[in-house]
Amino acid sequence: MNLQSSEVKSEESLPVWRGEFALAAAVLINSFGVVLMLYSGAGISAISSVPFAFSEVFPQVSLGTWTYLFQGILVLSLMVLRKKLVLSYLFSFAAGFVFSELLDVHELWISVLPDGIGWRIFYFLVSYLLISFGIALSNRCCLPIIPTDLFPRELAQITGFPYSRIKIAFDVICLAVTAGMTAAFRGHLEGLGIGTIMAAFTMGKVIGLMGKWMDKKVCFCSFMTGRDAGTGGERMLSHEISSVRH
Known about the structure:
By secondary structure, the chain is an all-alpha fold.
């Protein structure tokens, strides 16, 4: 009991950040991170590899459009698993639509960045950390998050398996689909590089580590929870998510 009281007291002393701003920041960070990773030449991030494959095979439709179509399938899959209509998932799809449009925006200007092997290594490292941080941030914003981030988090809760394992399995399946599609329709692999493979097998763990660090530094609240929940009840929810995540 004393340990619980001490933990609650410690949590209540943490600063409270608005989840709405956290989600907006995560969408901006992740959309830029995905495009930057692709620009680095090390391969696209696993969560965007399937839409990328479709955009390469069917180039009449942009990467952003294929992304929110893919996200729609993920949302429908979660509803089937939940066996009910979940309204918050629809909000998640709306956030995913903004994310998808930002992908197309970033693709318009990303080529102005300097090129070269050293720069490309730097871009990959930065994009890897940005995406990991963005996902960890969005997982704690107390709001429905973009479907590609929501899917492994919700699946972990539904199945009871650790988030890091679900995330890695999800990424590997995405890469397998991408490899199969591009090899079958383009005659060679596209969008997949050493960076993609490395990220797929390690990013889940890095997201978990960043999430633990965030939990020690800040609490989040949103219009869905209220400020009080950010220092109490919602903090408990964050720990519950964290427990299935790692």
